[in-house]
Amino acid sequence: MSDQAQALRQLVSSKDDLNLQAPVRHSARIITVSSGKGGVGKSNFTLNFALALKSLGQKVLLFDADIGMANIDVLMGVRPKYSLYHLLKGEKDISEIIELGTHSLPFIAGGSGMADLFTLSEADLNYFTTQIEQISEEMDYIIFDTGAGLSKETLKFIVAADECLVVTTPEPTSITDAYALIKVVHSMEKDVSFQLMVNRVIDEGEASQVADKISLVASRFLDMKIPMLGYMSDDAHVMQAVKKQVPFSIAFPGCSAAQDIYRVAMKYVEVPQFQPRETLSGIKGFMHKWLKRTK
Ligand SMILES: Nc1ncnc2c1ncn2[C@@H]1O[C@H](COP(=O)(O)OP(=O)(O)OP(=O)(O)O)[C@@H](O)[C@H]1O
Ligand SMILES: [Mg+2]
């Protein structure tokens, strides 16, 4: 175990040297979609948000990082042949494990491979890092759909990413759990920026009230600004689409949830997200921070 930890530390420090010398290249923005409470609509939001961004001309890779409960493929009614597992085992390269889902949306199925990420040899990790960096140059966004809550694995993804979109519903338990997630992530890594996505609301007013509650507490106790990215209406079409195994924005493009998601995607693309900062961002920052916590 200590050998592996030593190998990882060496890998991280050699990455430091690389980062200092590497020319600045295009790198995708790394986003995680998370929540405190489960079942609040993360996977449906992530999938339809990714499709909406794609329809706006953005290059998006969706990564199912919900360990053990991966279901982006189920929401699209596709059966992926390969997953991260095959990349980690060196059986396939990254372009081979990227599956095309609805409307040719590129995605990587998580599945059992995710757990193996935590026991990789240095050589395997090096291969994985190089492969991920390579794909990152071709993408505008890499979006991770994570599991709910404060599991160690999920937190590692969130703290390594540039931004976390926190999904909550108006339920008090969902709101307090969302705040708990933000608080824990912030205590681990100050660089992650957050935006709120309020799901299953009656109208914009309800969404703003929910977002205000979280923003206010975060501002007072954590000295953080957490804006609301947007909201999604409570809409029976979402469940119908899940049953049909077709993303709701494709199955029912005129429904209110679909209109909401397009509005959110348009806002996301229009407003510049990157604040230049001292620390590493993009995939290099992600791998750097992620590896630092792999011990
Ligand atoms: N805007 C909405 N309107 C109505 N129902 C919704 C909405 N969003 C989600 N749902 C319902 O909630 C269910 C759970 O959604 P989803 O699987 O996206 O949640 P999740 O946060 O990813 O769950 P988990 O924490 O288990 O990963 C959906 O199958 C759907 O029935
Ligand atoms: Mg989910």
TrEMBL record:
Its domain of life reads Bacteria
Annotated CDD domains: FlhG-like
Q: Does the keyword Nucleotide-binding apply?
A: yes
> What InterPro entries would the database entry show?
AAA_dom, FlhG, MinD_FleN, P-loop_NTPase, ParA/MinD_ATPase
Q: Name one Pfam family in it.
A: AAA_31
Record domain AAA: where: 29-193
Q: Which UniProt keywords apply?
A: ATP-binding, Nucleotide-binding
Look up keyword Nucleotide-binding and say if it applies: yes
- Record's protein name: ATPase
**Which organism encodes this protein?**
Paenibacillus segetis
